[in-house]
Amino acid sequence: MFRNSQQLYRPCSSPCFECITNDTKCTKCTGSYFLNDFQCVTSNLCPSGKYAEIKTNKCEFCDTKICKTCTETPKKCTSCPIGAFLQDNTCKSNCSKGTYGNSTSGICEPCNSKCKSCVGPSISDCSSCSPGSGYFNPITKICSFTCPVGYYQNNTYPDDLQCSKCQIGCDQCDNLSTCTLCNSSYFFLNGNCLTSCPSSYSKNIVNKICVKCNDTCFQCEDNEINNCTECQGDKFLQDKQCKYTCNGKFYPNKTNNICSQCHNFCEQCNGPTSLECTKCSGDLFLEVGQFTNTCDSCDQTCTTCSLGNQPYQCDTCSGILYLNLDNTCQQTCPSQYFKNSSNFKCQKCNDTCKECNGSLYTQCTECTGFLNLDVNKCVQNCPFGQFALNNKCELCDSNCKQCLNSKTLCTECNSPLYLDFTVNKCRSKCPLGTYSNSLNQKCESCNTKCYGCSGPLANECNQCTGILFLDIKTKTCVENCPDTFFGDKTTQMCQQCGPNCTSCDPLNINQCLSCKGDLFLYEGKCIKNCPEQYFENISLNNNICDSCDPTCLSCFGKENNKCISCNGDYYFYKNYCLRDCPEGTYQKDQINNNICDNCNSKCTECIGPLETECTKCSESLFLDQTQCISSCPERKYKKNGPGNINNICDDCHNTCYLCNGPSDNECTKCSGSKYFKANKCLTDCGNHQYGNPITQNCENCSSNCLQCFQKADDCTACDISLYLNYTIPQSQKYILTGKCFSTCPSQQFGNQVTNKCEKCDTNLCKECSKSSTKCTQCSQPTFLFDEKCILNCPKGTYPDQITNICSQCHISCKSCHGKESTDCNSCTIGKYYDEISKQCVENCPLLYYKDDSQQICGKCEIHCLKCEHNNPVICNNCIDNYYLFNGKCRDSCQAETYKNGAECLPCNSSVCKTCIDTPTKCTSCQNDKYLQQNECKENCNDLFYKGQKNGIKMCIPCQEPCLQCENEFKCLSCIQGLFFSNFSCLKNCPLGQFQDTKSKFLLCQDCDISCTSCSGPSNSECLSCSGSLYFDSLKKQCVNQCDSGYFSNLIFNLCEKCNSVCLECQGTSIQCTKCPMDLQLVGSQCIPCAKGFFYNKIAQDCQKCQNPCLECKKQEDICLKCIPGTYLYNNMITQTIQCLQECPLNTYLLNNSQCVACNVNCISCKGPSDQDCLICAFELVFDPLQNQCSTQCQQGYFIDDIYFPSQSNIQFKKCEMCHPTCLSCTGSLPNQCLECYPNAIKHQGQCLEEQPDGLFIKENKFLPCH
């Protein structure tokens, strides 16, 4: 049908089934016609490159990647593109075995009958032979029963007989690995043809074979197996024989494993050169050198000499010379040796002696290293009571029990003296800041907080430092005094506060800052109970009387917000005043007090004005409008909130007649023509189910139905699903006799177009799939290949007799014969036949190499683990216990080489003479270099000196603790942390020297002549003095006279500080000769003036303060404290300090002792602070809530003019409280309101919460009724 220009439907012209525009443009064809470019044609009229597709009734395009033209399917070819050949409706680049590609016809055509496979129709176009046609000749491409020279008959694969190439150089062979005749350029050995014979074999030139050399030879002469030319391992060539030792004047040369001749002056030698003599000719003696041993005559100093490394290697000496360490004859012996006159030899001292006169440890005259000479013994530590000086033990001073570096520099003292560690002196009395410790006879430092202490502990103070106070009870210095005490800054001691105080004001001991026990602090007093408008604030540090919270009209208890009644718009709830009521309550306004009242028990929240006006319900109840109910009405469901709260009754979905949640479409009964399924009401039940009009439910179809109608087993469509318990691809189920089956019966297939089971073509297939000719199983004697059953499997596959399938050969095989895919006949390019595994491999196994000419794995030279590609005699790796060098495997490395894993590598000759492990890890050096830690150096590192051991020049370690040294005994510089002094290294410099740390190395420098000891950094910074000089510790100098404030200590030659009370002193620190300005000298003591006196600088005497002062300044007649009954007042106008019987108007009494000025805002104040006003200045008003002067009153208060009680002529402004019903007012009466609280209405100056009789409310006003 199509719609014409009049918009009317008209039938299309045959054979169109559907058409557009007019009946000439078809879109769908009838019956056996096929659509092609809007035309309906028969199947044979589909154009070239297209085929008639039955499923779509269209001319569809062939698959141009595969076919040029096709039929039935896009891949069922009838002709092929250029380069491909048609065979069985398939285009192939290579035709199957037994056929070849005819480039003219483009078709795979059969080979000549003698050819199993071929490249053309001729008998000489074969590539393999048919059974009974002979062997394939790869040269002539003909099948015959003889093979050409250099080839053998390969019977490995009976169905693929070939002439295979023998190995290189072989004219005749039995197989690839067994040659029987070599050509004239090769030598025969063990079935192989070689260009040269391997090691240990001789060439027989006549017979062209390799013959084994004598077992002792590594190599031998051609045609002579007993004449060795090369030896290996521990054998050496001499007279054409390999021997373990060399005869006569010959030595074993390990460089080339031959016996080389010794030098003519050697009777015997052992290498590695001809000069390495072991025995000399005639009367010569053996001289052992660094590099060579030579024969020479004795030195003239020797009586006799013997084997050594110099011509003067003496055994005995001539005259009065002594035989030294190096076997030379000398007049003197070296350090640490003495002359033994009994045998004229230099004999070693005991190890502790540097110099000695005998071998015993008690015969030392000088000591080594850090040892010190005690009489004639060398000891590490000097005996008790002695100290080390210049490596000798000296006696300490008589006062010292023990000393260090100097006889007077004590480290322990003899009783009853005590060690002052600051100067290392022994004293009878310890200086200030220390105490005498009788347990260790030392002056121990006081605790850092003590200015002075008495012991026996460091923190038992009697004076304190800085701003600390002495706690007399504990004898400790504290920043804060304990409870009931305060710090007196005058005496620096803790003084007792007044009664009931735990802390107090230092200027007034009765003015408490905190209270004892259960008392409460109120205006500087400690009281039992707090006054009205205050509550008892109990804290960890202090109990105080604190004012109530601003929300409360009144309060009680231990907190300021424990209210009795509330202010303003706050609501009373459980003794608290809240802005908003808590959950479960609502705001209930009352005349006297607004409260939070409880909601009805069914509500968790409500809004009032009634307790039953719910907004949220209790657990398990549901909110319906404002009511809480246990079950919801019809067409509603219970909707639970989070945690089973906030539950409500909500409307069901319009498809449900009844529902039960948790959502509105969770139906329990359906309305109309809907079907019930999984709590939903549906019009269509979907796949696998149908709608039962009787039960109004969705019910299941039978198990194999995708869709069914009215009955469970009345299928209308079948399911597409996986086979249960099988791992095979998804397949469609097919309709058969009205039922659905997952599989079709044997010898049938499922037609995916008709969804019916149809029969296979049993002439071609045993079983089939998708179509009658697409086989999945074959019957004997055919095999499955490319969905077809064929008699012979193509090349690259083999017939699997078990599965009846043509299985693919392994990728490495060019052809194979089964039973396994790896059972190869020939190998592909890049693969090699391994006769061990009988497989084609990419890499040959160990001991074999790749032979490209034959595509096989050939055997390597003996001892080779791996060898060169195409060359068996050049090794790349060796077997165990052999080492690779220049392509050969040897059992050991020669001189000047080293072992690197499994190979010998040359040493770096520019650095090493011999080496180990690496080319630069030397064991001996070339020329004038020295060996140090396997490196060759021109100069040795720090801690080493140049020397020689065992004939090798090397860097020898210095003796500890030298950094640099000239020899074993003489240091030139020291390691870090030690000081250099007189060619020795010391931890501390000796007395008379100081530690110089500014130079490159730490040095001991001499002190100035005035010092007996000094500290540096200069030589004049003394620690102790010589002669009649005194040590000034501040200047670190020795002076003739001590500075002012210091006295000369004649015992210890020190300048010591006078006591702080003395300006100058003499003899001791407390023998004053002059006092500070505020103290007077009485005898030899400086004491302060008595209470009520001051020090007159002019008269230099203490004079009485003027009346009525109780105390005045130490140096001036200025009053500090008044007599009882008078108060100290600093008059800023007269600039005088007075004692008054009464404080002036603009002051207040502080601590009952002093008149202090009020704040500038106050005319009069009462304390305890200057802002606690009684009368306010200027236009300010007194706020009694804060006890301060302000510019205006707080809400609920009004300004009132009043007169001061004691001074009625003084008028001031004060904030007074409004009547409780007023928010703001002009006076205290109830009819003086200016503003009302929100719950009241103002009427004639009053704030009324209730409507009076005769009045009505309009616009928040009371108006009279008519």
Structure in words:
By secondary structure, the protein is mostly beta strands. Among the domains are: 501-547, Hormone Receptor, Insulin-like Growth Factor Receptor 1, Chain A, domain 2 (Hormone Receptor, Insulin-like Growth Factor Receptor 1, Chain A domain 2), CATH 2.10.220.10; 599-651, Hormone Receptor, Insulin-like Growth Factor Receptor 1, Chain A domain 2 (Ribbon). It contains no helices and 152 strands. The protein has a four-stranded mixed beta sheet with strand order 138-137-140-139, with no helix packed on it. A four-stranded mixed beta sheet has the order 144-143-146-145, with no helix packed on it. A two-stranded antiparallel ribbon has the order 1-2. Strand 89 (734-736) and strand 90 form a beta hairpin. Mean pLDDT is 83; it is low at 721-737.
Concise account of the structure shown:
The chain is mainly β and 1266 residues long.
